[in-house]
Every structure is written in C-alpha cells, then in structure tokens.
Write a structure and sequence with these properties.
2 domains; about 50% helix; binds manganese (II) ion; single chain; mainly alpha; three-stranded antiparallel beta sheet; Helix Hairpins; globular; minor pseudopilin epsh fold; about 200 residues
Length: about 200
Amino acid sequence: MAHELPPLPYPYDALEPYIDEQTMRLHHDIHHAGYVKGLNTAEQKLAEARKAGDFALVKHWSREAAFHGSGHLLHSIFWPNMTAADRAKAEPSGALADAIKRDFGSFDAFKAQFIAASGAVEGSGWGILAYRPTDESLVILTAEKHQNLTQWGVVPLLVLDVWEHAYYLKYQNRRGEYVQNFFNIINWDDVAGRYRDARS
Ligand code: MN
C-alpha cells in the first residue's frame, strides 16, 4: 500500500511569526511530498526486485528507502509536534514533565541541551527527544541527514527539523534563533500523547 502525504494539522500561516507561511508551503508540499514519493518508489523497486529475484540494485534502493522513509516518518511527527504560539504551553505537564525532570534534572536543563544539540548538528539534520524502551528513559539525540547516527529501538517524541529548507527563508544562517523560537510553538500535548503511547 502506497504511503500518503499527511495534511498539515493547521493552516500554513498558523506558526507565524516563528515559522513563515512560505517556508511551510515549500517544506510540506514540496519537501515532505518528495520523501513520500521517494519512499513509494523505493518500496516498489524492492518489490519488483523480489519478484524478479534480481538484487543487483538492492544497495541503492535500500538506501533510498532509508533516506525517504526516515524523512517521511520524522516530518509526520514534526508537523503535529508544533501548534500556534497562542495555543502552545511553555512546558509539558504530567508524566512527561516528571520524566524530563528525572532524566535531565529540570525542564530548563532539558531545553538548554536540546537547543545546544540541535544547533550543533553538522549540515542537515534533526534534534530529537526520544523514549528508549530498553531502560524506560528519555534521551536527546541528533541525526545527520535523516538516517545517520540513529539509536535503533528508540521512539521519537519531539523532533526539530534543522535542515536549511526548514528555516532559511526567514532566518538565513541564524539557526540558533530558529531553534530558540521553536519553543514558542511546541505542542506539548502531542508530545505527551506520544510518550504515553510509547510506554503502553
Ligand atoms: Mn524538512
């Protein structure tokens, strides 16, 4: 079954002034749509290879599937991870807040590490708050591109796109400012729901 581009859960201009409408249109309609298309193509080519018993290009299509599949998965979390600034809470509450305090010391310490780690990604990539089921803890990861430096088995809860296409129109080279402003539009209810689901 083919993968489909999920619609944005809010209007294109909902995240103004922190993320501008034009960036959202390009990012969702062009970039994310491209990952969906690329994943479908890669999976179709792998299915054809299995049918034909010809795996001459398996390395290429496996890489394509990992690249586009990771892009599709992370963007599908990124959009609902955000909400309009007038609806966003400054901090999470409940079990997620307790776990952040337990594993990072405080919300402010978590926020400082998340901002520093996201700002320090070399080239294109992501900042990621994830749940690690093996010891039931929260960890902050970064990814270069989509598919590198992953920790297998974690469940991403909060993801921040730090590819230039996510912020360059509005922020140019000021990634740090974009990362700071992300905290004005985080949908903590969405993040807490993902944390609850990951543990159940
Ligand atoms: Mn992106």
